[in-house]
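Lab notebook, design round three. We kept the backbone fixed and only want residue identities now. Task for the bench partner: fill in a sequence for the structure below.
Input structure tokens:
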């Protein structure tokens, strides 16, 4: 790697305690790109769809993927004492546009 190039490490630790989690991707309009909206905990894809549908009632389409099937790569150190969701929320906040009045 050359200087200045970002190094990413793969996060292989499970994100949950044995209860199935599902990553939720959605579109609110047919022409919108598919966007990651978050995750839900549910025993089956059908139950995950019910949860996601209740959370994102305005979604035109909802895609679900088992969390354990997602390969995660990050430039951040994932400490065993850090909750991934806290890290992701902080990263989302960093990417969120600033609201001005």
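Proposed sequence:
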């Amino acid at each position: 790697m050359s200087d200045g190039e970002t190094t990413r490490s793969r996060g292989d630790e499970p994100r949950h305690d044995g209860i199935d989690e599902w990553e939720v991707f959605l579109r609110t309009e047919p022409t919108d790109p598919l966007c990651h909206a978050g995750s839900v905990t549910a025993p089956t894809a059908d139950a995950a769809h019910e949860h996601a549908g209740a959370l994102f009632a305005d979604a035109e389409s909802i895609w679900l993927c088992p969390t354990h099937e997602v390969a995660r790569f990050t430039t951040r150190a994932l400490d065993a004492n850090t909750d991934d969701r806290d890290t992701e929320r902080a990263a989302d906040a960093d990417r969120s546009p600033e609201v001005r009045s």
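Keep this in mind before ordering anything: The radius of gyration is 16 Å.
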